[in-house]
Amino acid sequence: MTVSLAGGKEEVRDLVSDLTAHSRRKGLGWRVKGLTLKRQCERRFAEGISADVQNADVVISLGCGVGAQSMSETFPERRIIPGINTSNMGAPEKKGVFKEKCMGCGRCTIDRTAGICTLARCAKGLQNGPCGGSVDGKCELYPEIDCAWHQVYTILEAKGELSEAVEPVPPKDWSRSHSGGVRTVRSKE
Asked: Which of 39, 128, 130, 161 is deepest in the core (most CB within 10 A)?
């Protein structure tokens, strides 16, 4: 989580400092230790800190929601508290700012939409063309953001591939979405 400024060495150091100072002010007697892992979501990395976790009353995870859940599964007898709120699958725009680019829907169509996930980047999640309400390339609902479909058309037109946008995207198979419960993804080996 270093890149999101949520769980790198500096953030862990700052949290340890803040919690220690709070404990001192309130006379709580907490002993606070900070550790970082390469990835909390992989058991082999989490097991490397097993002794420290076993000796802790509480573990604060500064990993994403998957990391915090993986820690809870790896150490079911310990209380794991998420220290951040995972909000999206975003790409860094600038230091500490992420723009959601993907919904993780399980049925990607960006090959038809100039590399843009219209589910994540269109305020209405439209799959087959613009709503018609954008003004000067901006979204009618959120004028501060670019209209995803305006971007799709602009890119495809510049590449001479505008006919791609005319071909309808089939209806989304929402059984592969987050609303269908826990999804298991198997990579091809």
From this structure: 130
Structural tokens at position 83: 């220290």
* Residue 148 · residue 118 · CB < 8 Å: yes
Return d(Cα 156, Cα 150) in angstroms, integer: 10
What CA–CA distance (Å, rounded) separates 26 from 43? 35
Whether 78 contacts 63, CB under 8 Å: no
The CA dihedral of 124, 130, 131, 134, to the nearest 10 degrees, is: 100
pTM (predicted TM-score): 0.59
pLDDT per residue, tens digit, the chain (189 aa), is 555 556 678 889 999 999 999 999 999 999 999 998 887 878 888 888 999 999 999 999 888 777 887 888 898 888 888 887 766 667 777 777 777 778 777 777 888 888 888 888 899 989 888 898 999 999 999 999 899 999 999 998 998 888 766 678 778 776 666 665 555 556 555
Domains of the chain, residue spans: 2-82, 95-169
End-to-end CA distance of the chain: 28
